[in-house]
Amino acid sequence: MDHPITLITGANKGLGYETARRLLAAGHTVLLGARDRVRGEAAAGELGAAFVPIDVTDEAGVGAAADHVRERHGRLDVLINNAGIVGPRGPLADTTAAEALATFDTNVLGVVRVTHAFLPLLRESEHPRIVNVSSGTGTISRMEEIGWNQEVAPAIYSTSKAALSMLTLHYAHALPGILVNAVDPGYTATALNDFQGTQTIAQGTDLIVELATLPPGGPTATVRRHWTTPA
User: Fold this and answer.
1) What is the DSSP string of the chain?
2) pTM beyond 0.85
3) CA–CA dist 134, 186 (Å, integer)
């Protein structure tokens, strides 16, 4: 097979950007997805990746992105659903349903939109893989361990990530022949947490890269975790 063709959503910065850099170095053809064209094109230019405009909350835009990849490449080998937002940080009692919905629209429904649109292209691959970037804050035992720290794990964000981890397991069982896994990168210093994370960006992408490069017959229906305890 030619160089693996990999799409990463939300890849103009943070974990997505570093994952793109590492997979390019590993020989992948990386399609750097971002909703902001200026930032996305700049990031792709810096790395030597191809830019694909994609806003995971826009059904028509996601479909257009899939059409673009189909026309240019004819298949997709690796889909990394990385795009995500923190959502409301205030007290849960003050959080509205509209605020919660906006977070779920990106963090959960965005994954459904992108996965659904790109499944036909993944099925054209000899060895398709899906990696969903989740979070340990969506794990009840992990939250108990860190003391339910709202600053580290805003309530709606962590709830959306719990849903994403469960969604990953259901996709894995619904899509035989595709390796579908989720990853908790750990508490990594990114803009998502105002760079307060205790892990480097390289540490945070270790498991994402590992799952994106799994060999045929590798694991599926797993949630891989890389944890360090916040200070």
Assistant:
1) --SPEEEETT-SSHHHHHHHHHHHHTT-EEEEEES-HHHHHHHHHHHTPEEEE--TT-HHHHHHHHHHHHHHTS--SEEEE--------S-GGG--HHHHHHHHHHHTHHHHHHHHHHHHHHTTSSS-EEEEE--GGG-HHHHHHTT--TTTS-HHHHHHHHHHHHHHHHHHHHSTTSEEEEEE--SB-SGGGTT--SB-HHHHHHHHHHHHTPPTT---SEEEE------
2) yes
3) 10
Note the pLDDT tens digit of each residue in 216-226. 999 999 999 86
Q: Count of CB atoms within 10 A of residue 226's CB?
A: 19
Neighbours of 120 (CB within 10 A): 12
Active site amino acids: 157, 161
Cα gap 115→105, rounded to integer Å: 14
Give me the mean pLDDT over the 142-159 stretch.
72
Concatenating the DSSP letter of every residue in 41-78 gives HHHHHHHTPEEEE--TT-HHHHHHHHHHHHHHTS--SE
Count the residues in the chain: 231
